[in-house]
Amino acid sequence: MTQQGFKKFRRRAQVQPEVQEQVRPEPDEAVLENVPTGLQSEPAEILPTTLPSPWERLARISFDPDRGGRDGAPLASAVRTDPAGRAFDLLRTRLLQTLKARGWNRVAVTAPTGGCGATFCAVNLALSLARVPSSRTILMDLNFRSPGVGPAMGLAAAGDMASFLSGTRPVEEALVRPLDTLAVGLNATPDLNAAEILHDSRSAAVLDHMVADLDPETVVFDLPPMLEYDDAAAFLPQVDGVLVISDGTQTTAAHLAACERILNGNAPLLGVVLNRGRATADIGPVA
């Protein structure tokens, strides 16, 4: 390299840093070049600190507990001072004492034969349980032969328990809350495959998941008559105990003995409730 060429190279090396410094972007500008224009001035999104619990996500529906059902049957909530209303409150207290003492929470309500008032008793027992402050009660209409919880409560029974128990319908779509402390699983369509549905292991898994998510103190299952179908017998492994509703005008001692034989070794008999007694409603021992 000649002396003149070396001088030109040295002058170029001295000027280059200054040129680079002039064209180098500011740090903030460099960052902003990589941020979409529409997001540069937006504040960061603030997520909620807590999400609603599974219980709170159940849809609330309009319900008046002081009004009778569409089937004409009165609700005990409207006649709490009458013997029938007091009987359900007494049944509630005895039942809760028994369940808490044993760590149980699943109760089936059934009858020896049809027409004994099992659905009427299941509904009014659930309403009485729901009056306990800060409690959670679930009432499930699993009488696939003749669904009646919706009409008994004066509600539109738009539910589909078969889809729910098969796991194809989430709990948020299957249950509704007529009261803050009461959730109800309604059923609109009879199903002749009731026993097979209740035998299915998927039903047991769905109910276990429901109880774990919603965390109720008590779950009441309205079931078909024990001596007319095998539905109730199929469902016994899923409950902690059974209330049998007898009718003072038609239930016999032979009917009750037959129910006890079915329950023997499968589920405890919590008590026998006498419906349509001659003088007043009577409640057998809850043990």
UniProtKB/TrEMBL annotation:
**Superkingdom of origin:** Bacteria
Q: Spell out the residue ranges making up region: Disordered.
A: 1-29
GO molecular function (one): kinase activity
Q: Which UniProt keywords apply?
A: ATP-binding, Kinase, Nucleotide-binding, Transferase
InterPro entries given in the database record? Bact_polysacc_biosynth/exp (IPR050445), P-loop_NTPase (IPR027417), Wzc-like_C (IPR005702)
Know the name of this protein?
CpsD/CapB family tyrosine-protein kinase
